[in-house]
Design goal:
This protein has 2 domains: 22-128 and 203-515, no CATH class; 131-202, no CATH class. Helix content is 59%, strand content 0%. It is mainly α.
Length: 519
């Protein structure tokens, strides 16, 4: 992580000339410093979890996971974490600018360093969110033979003196909001972890780390012929401290869904003009996308993208649908109507940093109607105006359009949800969309620190936190949505070609008039 992106003379391989020089080398050093420093801060904050996060979590002896009580003021930890987010954004921006100038980067070092950080964070207790503790509670309930779509974690607080002390109070009356496949994963973790909440969460985080690494290696393999895009993919996914914080340090299940969904879209194979989809690949791809939706139902959006790509081949389309249903139907039938009702539990809710808060400070009855209309309008606009992308993988473009529309305008979204967008974005040519996605991820990550529903632990930070969460973050998110709409209407995506790659693999930048024909 500490090596800079090295210099090479200008080259030209089936594409435009690539500029390299001292400025590119400086960008490489800045990227390494920002990303590496941010990850080190996040690891340190995880180690000293007892100083700033609740509830308490009993550690097994000798571990893992491990933690120490360093007696560092909680407010100081939060300030340093805010700094880590700023460092991460600066490092990613510097790296992306270097990649756009044709830098190849020490990709192997980036892979090894980033995945080592992921492994370390997986072996430490969860921070930045209490959701992983709720997952563990749902798994524990399932292991006891209790339906987590009917019972809530408060049951464990009242009946289990060992496990119950670590139940977060904020969601203790909430049934599981996750799909049956997530419940099965939580059940397995509970069986392996036994009576220790820390061990149950450890298993959940280990599987998350494996999924995160699997996506990294999958992207590395797919993009190996395109060095600049390969570096960009690792900057946005593998070495992205903001993603690593939410998915690995926080232990969120979204990374499992993102991994299954991406694998499904890629396994479905190449198609397009003159290339007929392979039915068995469509079946397997549909099954993996179905698994992603069985973890989090939002990932049905990837299924819609796959269906759009296969719409001209009825056998392949039916095969993909059959594969998805083969996963979703039995699991929902097994867990019954309560699991189905959980899909709609947050339909009328907003997150604290949502721009809908500018319209109404509390939840309002027309929220879902407005959100659906905006989502539909944004989807249509992006399907018509996004650049064509990789013509050999036509499912990526509609899946990305649906994901961006959903997560940018839906009232209840959190930063780790962006795994859905980023795992697709890295297979799309670099454009202004990169900056919009990064801006959203950065501001929502800041707004969700320190991850305690009660807010920041230090009173002298609360005024700043209120402004950040209720004013700055919603304003930035609204501005980003406006920026995407204006860019789509104008067609000024500023698509970057893939230096050194096969120019036939990715379409050239699309002008506004041509962009209307790509949907």
């Amino acid at each position: 992580m500490s090596n800079s992106i090295r210099l090479h003379p200008p080259v030209r391989r089936d594409g435009p000339a690539v500029l390299r020089g001292p400025s590119t080398d400086v960008l490489g050093w800045l990227a390494a410093a920002g990303i590496g420093g941010s990850l080190l801060i996040m690891i340190a904050a995880s180690v000293i979890r007892p100083d700033w996060m609740a509830p308490s979590l009993g550690m097994p002896s000798p571990g893992p996971p491990w933690q120490v009580h360093a007696h560092i003021p909680a407010g100081l930890v939060v300030i340093v974490l805010w700094l880590a987010v700023v460092m991460a954004v600066g490092g990613i921006v510097a790296g992306l600018l270097a990649a756009r100038r044709g830098a190849r980067g020490p990709v192997r070092l980036i892979l090894v360093g980033s995945l080592l950080a992921v492994l370390v964070l997986a072996l430490l207790p969860p921070v930045g969110s209490t959701d992983a503790l709720d997952y563990a509670a749902y798994g524990r309930l399932t292991a006891l033979g209790i339906n987590p779509y009917v019972a809530t974690p408060i049951y464990l607080r009242l009946t289990d003196p060992v496990f119950g002390v670590s139940i977060p109070t904020h969601w203790e009356h909430q049934v599981s909001l996750y799909g049956p496949a997530a419940t099965i994963e939580q059940y397995l973790a509970a069986r392996l972890g036994g009576n220790s909440m820390a061990l149950v969460v450890l298993w959940l985080k280990i599987w998350n780390a494996l999924a995160f690494g699997g996506v990294a290696f999958l992207l590395d393999r797919v993009l190996r012929p395109h060095p600049a895009q390969r570096l960009r993919a690792h900057l946005l996914w593998t070495a992205n401290p903001l993603l690593i914080w939410g998915l690995i340090a926080g232990g969120h299940v979204d990374v499992l869904a993102a991994g299954a969904g991406l694998a499904g879209l890629l396994l479905a194979g190449r198609s397009g003009p003159g290339v007929r989809p392979v039915v068995w690949r469509a079946l397997a791809g549909g099954a993996l996308v179905g698994l992603a939706a069985d973890i989090k139902i939002d990932y049905l959006l990837l299924g819609l993208g796959l269906a759009w790509a296969l719409r001209r081949s009825v056998p392949a389309l039916l095969a993909a649908a059959a594969g998805g249903l083969a996963i979703l139907a039995p699991t929902y039938a097994w867990l019954g109507m309560p699991a189905f009702r959980a899909l709609f539990a947050r339909r009328d809710k907003t997150t604290q940093d949502s721009f809908y808060r500018f319209v109404a400070a509390t939840d309002w009855k027309y929220l879902i109607v407005v959100a659906v209309v905006l989502f539909a309008a944004m989807t249509i606009l992006l399907l018509r105006r996004l650049p064509a992308g990789d013509l050999g993988r036509p499912a990526i473009r509609p899946a990305l359009a649906l994901s961006v529309a959903w997560l940018f305008v839906w009232p209840y979204t959190l930063p780790w949800y962006d795994a859905m967008i980023i795992c697709l974005l890295v297979l799309y040519p670099a454009s202004r969309l990169d900056w919009f996605v990064l801006a959203r991820l950065a501001v929502t990550t800041l707004a969700n620190l320190p991850g305690d529903p009660s807010g920041v632990p230090a009173s002298y930070l609360r005024s700043f936190d209120v402004v950040l969460v209720h004013a700055v973050a919603p304003a930035v998110m609204l501005a980003v949505v406006a920026g995407i709409v204006l860019t789509a209407v104008s067609g000024e995506w500023h698509v970057q070609p893939w230096p050194g790659g096969d120019p036939s693999a990715v379409s050239p930048p699309v002008q506004p008039a041509a962009a209307e024909k790509t949907g």
